[in-house]
Amino acid sequence: MMKEKRNKDKSIRIDSVKLALKHDKAAVISLILLGIIILFALLAPFLPMEPNATDIANRLKEPSLTHWFGTDEVGRDYFARVIYGGRVSLIVAFLAMLTSLTIGVAAGTIAGLTGGIVDMILMRIVDILHSIPWMVLVTVVSIFLKPGIQSIILVIGLFTWMEIARLVRAETLSLKEREFILYAGFSGVSKWKIIISHIIPSVFPTIIVAATTSMANAIMTESSLSFLGVGIQQPMSSWGSLLQNAQGTMQNSFHMALIPGLLIIITIFAFNKLGNLLRVYVEPKVMSGEKE
Amino acid sequence: MARYILKRILTAIPMVLLITVLCFALMHFAPYDAIDAMTTPKMSQETINLIKAKYGYDQPVYVQYVRWLDGIMNGNFGYSIVTKQSIAADLAVRLPNTVKLVLPAFITAYILAVVLGLIAGANKNKKADKIIDAVSSVGIAVPSFWFAMLLIFALGYKLKLLPIVGMHAVGKESSITDFLKHFIMPFLTLTVSFMPANIKFVRSSTLTQFSEDYVLVQRAFGATKSEIMFKHVCKNVLLPVITRLGMALPLLVTGAIITESVFSWPGVGPYFIKAIQGMDYPIVMIILVLSSTMVILGNLLSDILYCLIDPRIKEMG
Hints:
The complex is a heterodimer of chains A (about 290) and B (about 325). By secondary structure, chain A is mainly α. Chain A has 12 helices and no strands. The relative contact order of chain A is 0.14. Mean pLDDT of chain A is about 85; it is low at about 285-290. By secondary structure, chain B is an all-alpha fold. The mean pLDDT of chain B is about 85. The interface between A and B is large, with 45 and 42 residues.
């Protein structure tokens, strides 16, 4: 009985996602493009291309059949550079997102479940971190760490968890009053166990939706930092640092500035759309409210 | 209501203090400090001690903190350790430049966002809504520096219409037309970057208002769509929008770091980025404190505005 009901529920959810996709061609296209970008980024080391091989004779070439995206100022194949740049951007964003989710979920559940002084302290920390404009906060913290990919991941991850913590805390507060959690508490189950086996599964939908937003934001933050020269450093490059580099040669090789930017836009757009779709899946009401 | 406002102000003060403590601690424990910046390895220990004493770095940490805080309160922001210039004097030149750029851009973006958001919300799922929503969805994904690069390429390099860096051409510091020429591209970049999120906000609150019961009642009484729109919905949408204005306060300091850097606009942004790269801690600290205080003040202002506008809040006092 239960299983049947669950299956029916699932098919309603899937139907509402399908309906949402039908009305939103841009979402379909952007998600397919995102899939291709991720595939290339994952497979990059196995593909026959070399992002660092210079060829001074072929500098700043326009896109052609041999070099799909042309070459840069020292003759490196720009297609390979863009793919490897995307790999860096996506890895940074993904790990930063995981870090920020972990901290946010931990802080949110602990604050919500424990209450009292712990809750107050955690929420004050959230308030304070929230009061510092993110650009300022992230750049300042980057001084403390050695420049490099790990630092960027840490900086973005450590200072973007506040919103998630607030969301999760609010949900935990209402879950706390539900019978199954109260009962678990009365029968002497430890707080950790309650968090792991009851609260986290219940807030999981929220977490997944937050993950997509977090991913989109992390990509934007990383590329902004790298563009300003306080993010990814040479010889490694990301989409942001490719754009920083392209500033110098833009006048003649405009495609070098155009391509990484378009890829950033597609990726962020697709992650935002993915977030919307997951929201529709989690609460099918959203959809019925939007389209009558 | 007065009690509520007072309570809000009283909670804001410890926040600001905590932030100053945090900033000071951050900079105190930074791996490379002001002393390293002012001394060279060749100096003898005695000279180093002299320099430390001169700037007060030989005192205990809390004394340094109290002195620093006292200085800020009195408008003495200290000195850059790289250029030795007074930070207050530097900021007095740079802040107005940032405000000159951010304020007009923000106001334009806000007005456009309200108009477009209302149009989209009132025409749900029609062509106008779809276009506005699509544009703002893409807009959110566009990095502002990339948009700036497009403008520079099109208007600066190809059409050669506008200058691409700075605020004035050399020797034309008092010319308004010269200023405007330099102003257009950073202004457009900022306007475009402020707009999309605000359009989405206005659109979704318009949608919520249109689904309220009072709209249904009005329709039942035969009110036309424009009557409902201008007499009722508009008012309810605009109130929260106005209260959001307070949140724009911090933008006046750090709202244009990226845009200013791209266009070398002589505002707070490039000053801050240069200080970060040069490890010029006193400057970094001041900007951190200043911008966070602006955030807290902005939120305070928003809450107070909300309280003045929405009578339901008053009773909570």
